[in-house]
Amino acid sequence: MLEIKDLHVNYGKVEAVRGVGMSVDPGRVTLVLGANGAGKTTTLRAVTGLHPPASGQVLLDGERLERHPAHRVVRRGVVLVPEGRRVFAPLSVYENLLLGSYTAARSTFAEGLEQVYTMFPVLKKRRDSAAGLLSGGEQQMLAFGRAFLARPRYMLLDEPSMGLAPAMVESVLSSVRVLADAGIGILMVEQNAETGMDVADEVVAMARGEVVYSGPVTDARSNASVLRAFLGEA
Ligand code: ATP
């Protein structure tokens, strides 16, 4: 289990995250909702060692992660797929995937690559195309595939549907479920609440740096405070 406990993160005097707790199990999707500035990205950055927290704990199967630098967090099996995909546009799909595997054992690349091609057949079809020529949705799948090749146990996804054509949102969020079904625990920040909830197991809503709701997706759909947090009114 990946667990965040009483996390506080500051930018100078700004307390961006104040006492946040949430968790995710292998094979499950925890969806994090909240208005702009609620502290969602900051939480993901603190978990992955990109911004050290002021206090609190990040536990990976009970082992504390929050003081580890980012590269060590990746090696422990927790990877971040940041907002904006950031694929290497001039490189081929295959080359992008190869780069994703640099922290993993070489022997696992071929097997991992086959898994990625099975999960996302479009990447196999376009393996020799420059990544920059893919659609936004395909680039997002490439970003997922590249992260998968680091052989993570947990993936943190920051707004995977950002900037995608509406028709692609559903297919990208379905691929999130595919990753979870491969056994990965997913902590996903996503503005598309409805489509996000279609693939989530648990929902956490944040407002102004705090968790205002946390519970199973079935309850979240009928809970007004989730919606208010999402709309920025909580
Ligand atoms: P968004 O959906 O806009 O990304 P978010 O919920 O991810 O929102 P954060 O980006 O985590 O929110 O921001 C939380 C708070 O921290 C905001 O008040 C923001 O202005 C502030 N903040 C974020 N990054 C920095 C930074 N580098 N320096 C100073 N303040 C920051």
TrEMBL record:
It comes from the Bacteria. Transmembrane segments: none annotated. GO terms for molecular function: ATP binding. PANTHER family: HIGH-AFFINITY BRANCHED-CHAIN AMINO ACID TRANSPORT ATP-BINDING PROTEIN LIVF. Keywords: Amino-acid transport, ATP-binding, Nucleotide-binding, Transport. The keyword Ribonucleoprotein does not apply. This is ABC transporter ATP-binding protein. Pfam families: ABC_tran. SUPFAM superfamilies: P-loop containing nucleoside triphosphate hydrolases. Belongs to the ABC transporter superfamily. InterPro entries: AAA+_ATPase, ABC_transporter-like_ATP-bd, ABC_transporter-like_CS, BCAA_Transport_ATP-bd_LivF, P-loop_NTPase. Residues 2-233 form the ABC transporter domain. SMART domains: AAA. The keyword Mitochondrion does not apply.
